[in-house]
Design brief:
The protein is α/β, with parallel strands linked by helices. Helix content is 44%, strand content 13%. The strands form three sheets. Strands 3-2-1-4-5-6 form a six-stranded parallel sheet, with helices on both faces. α19 links the parallel β13 and β14. The N and C termini lie far apart (69 Å). The relative contact order is 0.08. The structure holds nicotinamide-adenine-dinucleotide and uridine-5'-diphosphate-glucuronic acid (UGA). Uridine-5'-diphosphate-glucuronic acid (UGA) binds next to α10. It catalyses: UDP-alpha-D-glucose + 2 NAD(+) + H2O = UDP-alpha-D-glucuronate + 2 NADH + 3 H(+).
């Protein structure tokens, strides 16, 4: 029988660490959960009365945090104390694509991860279970174990891999009812088995046993990269076919529906779009490509690289078609961008297709008016800097207008492009929008059937692309 007084900590209070640990706290009231981060601002946001929606807009999250915070859920910037107190430490730090040195542009940057491991090794006061929650290259647990054991206090750290499969916008639902929980560990040794049992015990509080899958460490680490690669591959596959549809008169939604009804294919993740975004798909595939290249699997690397290349092409193709259809010039035209987040129900803009489309249009000297219900002006500014989306010597304020609502963004614009499928865009008064636009008015639907939901469009004199071959 396990103790009821068990403490888990998590290093990294981001999109994964925060919601995941909040769910553990909710479902395991007898477990103390400490979420620690080196970023004090991040911690004070988690500790604030109202979670700042631009930082953590995630449906259902605030309620869970409020129910548990101060009871068995604690957010702290004191990482030492969290490590010392905990029996089990999740590491959920960011592992972005490396930007420098060997593997730049492809390999995962493991700097944060190694710093976290060194931190644990330095301050731990006893044996600990260390759980990889971050997405990591296969065989990282081996290096993690070496770093952790490089202390002279003879402490033992049992490393587990427990990748996270939540998607943003549905994180709380995904965490409450996961398709599966994956736990990789050294299942050949007693200490490894005990550690696996302990983590299984946590999840068993709410996840049916048959959905908790235990594997060896390497299968678990690799499965996470492969799951993301397969999901992204479906999006790139359907996007490639969208280009074919536009040239042939076939309808991408009809094709998606037709193939998706085959149970072997399934109907999810077949929504054509302006391209996938988010912090992980591209990063994880590039990581997979890098691993394959490093071990000499050139053909495998090329195969997966194509998923990312197709996505880049789709984003560029979308912007090019906008320019082409607006009589080959968008110079000084106002273009309304509805949505900036990489998908609905999140304020996250990492790798959002919107910034790439904006960059292309700005290079063509357009002016852009942006409205997103959950992305702040400050965030959009940071993204334009980070992605170097503004032409050299151009000021943000002279080219970009951040608007408080969709009507303001669309007013006086020559075109609208729908970048994010926010539900509220379905309920806009499109007659009013149309009346306020320069004519001829264009709408470009980066979410394909999205504008069709607003059947309204058919009766307007709008030209729209990338959904049906209307032109
Ligand atoms: P994030 O950037 O939102 O959060 C990471 C946090 O870790 C930051 O707040 C940062 O300050 C903190 N941090 C960095 N180094 C630290 C250290 N040494 N000690 C303590 N804190 C430290 O990242 P995220 O989106 O939560 O992703 C975390 C990991 O989870 C990544 O590996 C990612 O690939 C993976 N993942 C993300 C998602 C997602 O939807 N975002 C889903 C599944 C898996
Ligand atoms: C994705 C995976 O779905 C999660 O399982 C995984 O845990 C996570 O990555 C991760 O490792 O970070 P997320 O990026 O939050 O989750 O969101 P998704 O719903 O997968 O969407 C990713 C992108 O693909 C979005 O830009 C979305 O608009 C696009 N997409 C998705 C499409 O264009 N078409 C689709 O049919 C589905």
């Amino acid at each position: 029988k396990f103790d009821f007084e068990y403490t888990v900590a998590c290093l990294g209070a981001g999109y994964v660490g925060g919601p995941t640990m909040a769910m553990v706290a909710l479902k395991c009231p007898e477990v103390k959960v400490i979420v620690a981060d080196i970023n004090e601002k991040q911690i004070s946001a988690w500790n604030s009365d109202k979670l700042p929606m631009y930082v953590f807009y995630e449906p259902g999250l605030e309620e869970v945090v409020k129910a548990c915070r101060g009871r068995n859920l604690f957010f702290t910037a004191d990482c030492d104390k969290a490590v010392i107190e905990a029996d089990m430490i999740f590491v959920s730090v960011n592992t972005p694509t490396k930007k420098y040195g060997a593997g730049a542009g492809k390999a995962a940057d493991l700097k944060n991860w190694e710093l976290a491991a060194r931190h644990i090794s330095r301050v731990a006061n006893g044996d600990k279970i260390v759980v990889e929650k971050s997405t990591l290259p296969v065989r990282t647990a081996h290096s993690m174990s070496r770093v952790l054991h490089a202390n002279d206090r003879k402490l033992h750290f049992e490393v587990l891999s427990n990748p996270e499969f939540l998607a943003e916008g549905t994180a709380m639902k995904d965490l409450a009812k996961p398709d599966r929980v994956l736990i990789g560990g050294n299942n050949k040794e007693k200490a490894g088995k005990n550690a696996i049992d302990r983590l299984v015990w946590i999840y068993e509080h709410w996840v049916p046993k048959e959905r908790i899958l235990t594997t060896n460490l390497w299968s678990s680490e690799l499965s996470k990269l492969v799951a993301n690669a397969f999901l992204a591959q479906r999006v790139s596959s359907i996007n490639s076919i969208s280009a074919l549809c536009e040239q042939t008169g076939a309808d991408i939604d009809e094709v998606a529906k037709s193939i998706g009804m085959d149970q072997r294919i399934g109907n999810r993740f077949l929504q054509a779009s302006v391209g996938f975004g988010g912090s992980c798909f591209q990063k994880d595939i590039l990581n997979l490509v890098y691993i394959c290249e490093s071990i000499g699997l050139k053909e495998v690397a090329e195969y997966w690289q194509q998923v990312v290349s197709m996505n880049d092409w789709q984003k560029c193709r979308f912007a090019q078609r906008m320019v082409k259809s607006m009589f080959n010039t968008v110079a000084d035209k106002r273009i309304a961008m509805l949505g900036f987040a990489f998908k609905k129900d999140t304020g996250d803009t990492r790798e959002t297709a919107a910034v790439y489309v904006a960059k292309h249009l700005l290079d063509e000297r357009a002016k852009i008016a942006i409205y997103d219900p959950r992305v702040s002006e400050a965030q959009i500014k940071m993204d334009f800097d980070y992605y170097e989306a503004l032409p050299k010597d151009e000021k943000f304020s002279s080219r970009i207008d951040i608007c408080k609502d969709a009507y303001g963004a669309c007013k006086g614009s020559h075109a609208i492009c729908v970048m994010t499928e926010w539900d509220e865009f379905k309920d806009l008064n499109y007659q009013k929008i149309y009346d306020s636009m320069a004519k001829p008015a264009f709408i470009f639907d980066g979410r394909y059937d999205f504008v069709l939901v607003v059947g309204f469009f058919y009766c307007l004199n709008l030209v729209f692309f990338l959904d049906r071959n209307i032109l």
